[in-house]
Amino acid sequence: MSATTFGILCGVLALGATIPGDARVARLAKEVRAKGWIVYSARTERGDWDLFLMRPDGSEQRNISTTPAFSELGGRFSPDGKKLLYRRIPKNSRINHDVWGAMGELIVANADGTGATVYGNAGEFPWASWSPDGKQLACLTKTGIEMCDFATKKVLRKLDRKGIYQQLFWSPDGQWLTGTANHYGESWTVVRMNASTGEVNPLAKFQNCTPDWSPDSKRLIYSSRPAHQEEPDGGKLARSVGQSPGYGWTQLWIVDGDGRRNSLVYGEDSRHIYGGALSPDGRYVVFTRSSVDGGLGIGDKGAPMALMRLEDAPTIGGESKALRKLFPHTKDGPVLPLPDGWEPHWTYAAVQEKK
Amino acid sequence: MTRSRSFGLGLALALVTFSCAKRGDSGVDEQVTTLGTIEVTAKLVEIRDPFPPNDLYNYAYVLKYKVLAVDRGKVDGDEILVAHYNPLKPRSSAQDEFSGKVGGRLDRFRAGDVHRMALEAPLDNFWMGGVVDKYFDQKGVRYWAVWTNLKTD
Q1: A87 close to A73: Cβ distance less than 8 angstroms
Q2: What letters, b where the CB count within 10 A reaches 16 and e where it falls short, cover B119-146?
Q3: Residue numbers in B near A102 (CB within 8 A)
Q4: Is-contact B95 B102, C-beta < 8 A?
Q5: DSSP helix, strand, coil percent of chain B (3-state; round to 5)
């Protein structure tokens, strides 16, 4: 048995949503294998974080930012899949799950990691997000949301940030922005902002974050840790990972842009699900499954990633007695285990092999 | 005098001295009179709910004050809403890599206490992170506490 096969088998066993050796997982892997590339951050043996590319089935992994003095994080493909935006921080800086978009320098590179250039100095262009045509960047600063011309770096216009404080992302149709905000007294509210008028509507209040867009800009995927989660084991599981009983587990949800209809995508009692990113056709979702909150995994070493079909939502992983009680009609579709990582992002564009 | 009695007397003297110093604290120091653009002496009206835990996330928590004196700059009205960063911590150790300059000689927040504070406004220009604002239905400026001292005189 190869190391890769063994790793994936271990992942399948841990996921528990699927039967070990489940042919459905193998079919899913085959189905997504040629569907572009996923960029993600992962901890290397040297202890720094680098950017990696892989096929959506976890094959063809390769490090595209081998810089021992720095850590690279939060890679995002440009809408045409030709470029990457990411942050670069000194190797010994600790990544913060909530402020990473404002940490270190903003780097622009080709999608295969070549041609990396410093676009902005430390702290500049925080939470930079591509416009649909790749000609502008939206940045989240303390004094507002700035839309900058990508070529000249000039601020073209500015909006009040209306309480948004992290994870700003511009919708694929250019009409909306999303982010995590303080909204009517609730922090950790995922909101949608009209990119022209600055008007904001809340999508999910109380303990939500890491929103990202569906390709049609009509829905958003986000992480949520609902209140009052039942703990059938009296908090034993929580305590085993140093978590306070009653804290709860973070789940992946999807919501319409007007906030009226939201539904569970994936949940697993014992895991915090973060970094949800949809495939460019909106059929699949990749995410991370961290046993500790914050998304970076135990010891900040990254968390196992996983991939599923959106049509299989809701799917519940592991035993998850409490969650299964709440969602008795879970589909429990196949969930493809992927390597440890953080903040994955997906393109269907062809990414050239690094020479 | 035995060694333990002399130690006890010394301790008592130290406590009396300390408590007198606290009682007579004007709250004025170099930082509170120079940091920020506004300086007020104000009474903390209430703490509506327990502060949220700070084991994983650090918040700014909005508190209501009755203004007793405006020592520098200008505020809107005689009741103001002030956001304090990570209020579970003494002000002297509240500052971290995300907060910007924050500090002071206040150890803990108690309703009814009077604080001498150096402030900035509006809050959004100085803190980009979670805010717990139990007064969200009240319009008006949210101030950002840069430096907070207890006033006891």
Answers
A1: yes
A2: bbbebbebbbbbbbbbebeeeeebbbbb
A3: 128
A4: yes
A5: 20, 35, 50
Nearest Cα of chain A lies from the Cα of B57 at a distance, in angstroms, of 9
ipTM of the assembly? 0.81
Question: How far apart are the C-alpha atoms of A294 and A310, rounded to whole Å?
Answer: 24
Which range among A85-99, A155-169, A244-258, B118-132 shows the weakest confidence by mean pLDDT? A85-99
Please indicate if any CB of chain B lies within 8 Å of the CB of A166: yes
Our measurement of the distance from residue A50's CA atom to the centroid of its chain's CA atoms, rounded to an integer in Å, reads 16
Q: Is residue B44 within a helix (H) or strand (E), and if so which, with residue range? A: strand B38-46
Q: H-helix or E-strand containing B9?
A: helix B3-23
Residue recorded with tokens 């995590």: A180
Quick check: A39 and A75 in contact, CB under 8 A?
A: yes
Q: Which residue has the tokens 């070529």?
A: A151
- Structural contact between residues B25 and B107, judged by C-beta atoms closer than 8 angstroms: no
To the nearest 10°, the Cα dihedral for A310, A313, A319, A323? 140
Residues A38 and A344 sit within 8 Å (Cβ to Cβ): yes
List, for residues A228-257, the tens digit of each pLDDT value. 999 999 999 999 988 989 999 999 999 999
Give B30→chain A minimum CA distance, Å.
Answer: 27
With beta carbons less than 8 A apart as the criterion, state whether B146 and B101 touch.
Answer: yes
pLDDT tens for residues B25-57? 999 999 999 999 999 999 999 999 899 888 777
Record: contact A184-B136, CB cut-off 8 A? yes
